[in-house]
Every structure is written in structure tokens, then in C-alpha cells.
Amino acid sequence: MSIRENFSDADMDQWLNDNRVTEIECLVPDLTGVARGKILPRAKFTQDRGMRIPEAVLGMTVTGNYPTENAAYDRAISNTDRDMILRADPGSITTVPWAIDPTAQVIHDCYFADGTLVDFAPRSVLRRVLKLYADKGWKPVVGPELEFYLTEKNIDPDLPLRAPVGRSGRAETTRQVYSIDAVNEFDPLFEDIYDYCALMNLDVDTLIHETGAGQMGLNFQHGDAMALADNVFYFKRTLREAALKHHMYATFMAKPMAGEPGSAMHVHQSVSDAATGSNIFTLADGSPSPQFRHYIGGLQRYTPSAMAILAPYVNSYRRIVRHTAAPINVQWGMDNRTVGFRIPISGVAQRRVENRIIGADANPYLAMAVTLACGYLGLVDQLEPTPMVTGSAYDHFYELPQGLPEALQLLQREDRLREVLGERFIDVYAAIKELEHQEFMTVISPWEREHLLLHV
After folding, report:
1. Tens digit of each residue's pLDDT (9 = 90 or more) over 340-385
2. What is the DSSP letter of 287?
3. Is the pLDDT at 168 greater than 90, yes or no?
4. Do 411 and 430 lie in a common domain?
5. What distance in Å separates the CA atoms of residue 198 and residue 372, rounded to the nearest whole number?
6. What family is this protein classified in (predicted)?
7. pTM, rounded to two decimals
């Protein structure tokens, strides 16, 4: 369900008038998940105006640079710096609760001049995968769980992050997993977050304290993949703004602190019959269906090749380490948090798979698209999973790439993911990530100075 389900352009205009909106933030999620776009006065905002931004906005690294002398990138993105035409998704319009004046924000889709969707835009990639499901008469159902850290403000990137000070005047120094009192240390912040989410119609659910110092987790109600990706995109903006108001940072880095667990975006997923609404993972007698096994088989077969999207930065792979509350392989098991694909205990109608590999730093649209793509390939190719793990999957071998260069090689070689996600998307994405890795390799770390400077 979208924030405002079945909203038309006319409904959107009426909502803007009813809420006396004076300014509109026109947002486009880029490949990193950053909100790009323009801010317009209300009088200038109309769908037929055809607002435009350069196509290359979707082809930047997280540092704002562009690949050069990359043949695949040059074939995918015009070298004339042409424009994309933006069109608002009326169902995504909502308020900006931290703004001083009445302000709205609305997510836009990107189109070429001929009226076709820009195929390497994150929302377009997810739409492409969802259409594959729709063509089969299926509808995916997802439920994200998003982990994040609250930290002290840190204006010097050379200094390590530290846990923030709560109401008691002290920072956490021990593990406080599931502690209610530890969450209550930040009550003023979380009260603002819940108020903001209510004003924005974001359907958030349970808040918990995770394992790390200052690490929290938030569950979203299950539903439509595009709507949930929008919700995660909006929530990340909202949390950062609320944290700044309370003189803290909120970060979705996969591994922001040495010695602390990383942050994930676990995604629960099932598939419904679009006509009946029944879960195709369950047979009439309540037993698991062959399609349930095939879906798991697809996740196992293709997730290693998709890791560059699920773990998109050099920092992401610091999280994928044995015995650190993150999976290291593609094993699956029943109510087993050491595996990549956990089957939660549930009623037969709610039978689902939880992908625990995805990092909190992943673009939510691309993360939803690629995990659903892996499952889709398992369904259509009728792939069988390996035997279920009953003990700790940490005792098994690594089956996931352990760095971004290896992950990019696997992604670029996997033709089936190219077919499902789109040739041009893979080319643009891989070029950007290769450049990001090159940029990272120009930086000398404190570890290198400490251990290599005088010893080698």
C-alpha cells in the first residue's frame, strides 16, 4: 500500500491545497539511495510542467564523481548530458514534518524524452522485477527490518564514532540488546520519530535495542514492495533529521564502529497468488509447497552474484564476518539466525523467507528488486535448495564474496541477473562501484600507518 493509496494527480493537487503547502521537495532516489531533485514553490508545481534534471544524476558515485573512459557506462548514459523528465508518483506525497513552513515531499519517476522509464533508475529496476511477477499472476509481499546506529556528532571523519549520551548523561559502554531502559534513554528522539512517521503516514511497527552500543532496529508492516521501499527511503531521511534535532547522528553504515556488530536490512518475503491472495509457499494441506523450496533455491543460487547490490560499499564487507550476528553464507534454516535465509516460525498462511544478508546501507529499491529477482529465478527455473541447516551456519564455509571487487566480478558475469534487472542498469551500477573502489584505494588507513610504517 502506498502512503496515499490510489491517489490521482487531482487528489494530489487537492491534498496540497487542503494542507496549504507553500513548498514542495521533488525527490528522485539515486543509485546510492540519496534523495536528489529540486525544491519548488507550490505555484510552480504541476505534472504537465515536465520538470527535468540531468540523466547523469543517476550515474554518480557516493562521492559525486562520474566514471570516465568506461565503455559500458558511456554506452548506457548519453555523453551530451541530456535531461530526464520527472513525473511525481501521487501516492507518495506526504508532509515534511521538520520543515518550518508547510512543505510537502513527493517521490518522482524518471522518463526519457520518448516517454519510457529510465531503466537504470532504482524505482524503474524494482518496477521491472514486479512486472515479471505480475506477468506470472504473482504478487510479492515484503516486510523490512532496518537496523541503525545513533552516535555522537562527529565532524572529523578521522576520528572513530562514539555512542551518544542519553537522558542519564552517560553513554552506553556494554551490550544492551532488547533493553527497554536503553531505548528509553533516547525517548525524546523516538517520540519525535513516531510523531513524524504518523504525520507522514509511514506504517512503522516495533522499535527495539539491537546488540551494539547505540544500535536500534525498527520493523515495518509487511506489504507491497514499492510502497515499502518508499517507506524505507523516507524513514532514512526522517531519522537523520530527527537525530540532528537532538544533537546526534543516525547512520545506516553497515559497520560504523569497530568491535560492534554491523547493521542489516532484513527483508521478510513471500509471494501471493494475485487472483486469490493465497500464499503460494503453502499447499492446501498446510505443508510447504514446491514453490517455497524453489524460491529458497533461487536465493541460494543467485545471491552471491547479487552481493554488490546488497552490500554496495567497501565498508559493507566488514559486516560479513563469522560470529558477528551477520551471515557468511547462503545456508537456510528454521528459526535460525546464523543462516543467510531464515524461515521464521509462523502460521502456514504467513510462511515466508527472511533474507538476513542485506546491509542497512543498501538502496531499498535495489535491495527489494534484487532479492525478489533471485527468488523469481528460483521459481521459474524450479531450483532446489540445499539441505536445511539445523546447527550453526557459522561452522560452514564462506559462500559470499568478501570484498567489493569480487562481488562486482560475480555480478557482471551473471547473465540471468542481467536479463531480470536490465543490461543498462548492471553496466551503469558496476561502473559506479568500480570507481568508488578506486577512490577508496587512494586513502591510507590508520591501521596501515600503525602496523606498516615502521615494521615492514
Report:
1. 999 999 999 999 999 999 999 999 999 999 999 999 999 999 999 9
2. S
3. no
4. no
5. 28
6. Belongs to the glutamine synthetase family.
7. 0.96
Question: How many helices and strands in the chain, by DSSP H and E?
Answer: 12, 14
Number of domains observed in the structure of the chain: 2
Q: What is the pLDDT of residues 443-452, one digit of tens each?
A: 999 999 999 9
CA–CA distance, 355 with 5 (Å, rounded to integer): 27
What is the DSSP track for 275-326? Answer: TT--BTTB-TTSSBPHHHHHHHHHHHHHHHHHHHHHS-SGGGGGS--TTSSS
State the average pLDDT over residues 14-43.
94
- Residues 43 and 109: their CA atoms lie apart, in Å, by 21
User: What pLDDT shows up at residue 176?
Assistant: 72
Within a domain: 125: no
Using one digit for the tens of pLDDT, what is the confidence trace for 85-109?
A: 999 999 999 999 999 999 999 999 9
Furthest CA-CA distance within the chain:
69
Give the structural domain span for 82: 1-118+422-455
Q: What is the mean pLDDT of residues 176-202?
A: 86
The three-class DSSP label of residue 271 is strand
100 plus 234 within the same structural domain: no
**Alpha helix ranges (H) inside 142-186:** 180-184
Closest CA to 379 of 297, 268, 306, 307: 297
Contact 332, 230 (CB under 8 A): no
The set of cell numbers assigned to 305 is 552474484
Enter the C-alpha cell of residue 235. Answer: 524513514
Whether 72 and 45 map to the same domain: the answer is yes
The three three-digit cell numbers of residue 186, written as one number: 533516547
Kindly report the average pLDDT of the chain as a whole number.
94
Task: Calculate mean pLDDT across residues 29-35.
Answer: 93
109, 91, 122: which is closest to 53 by C-alpha? 109
Q: Strand 103-111 relative to strand 23-29: parallel, antiparallel, unpaired?
A: parallel
**CATH, residue 210:** 3.30.590.10
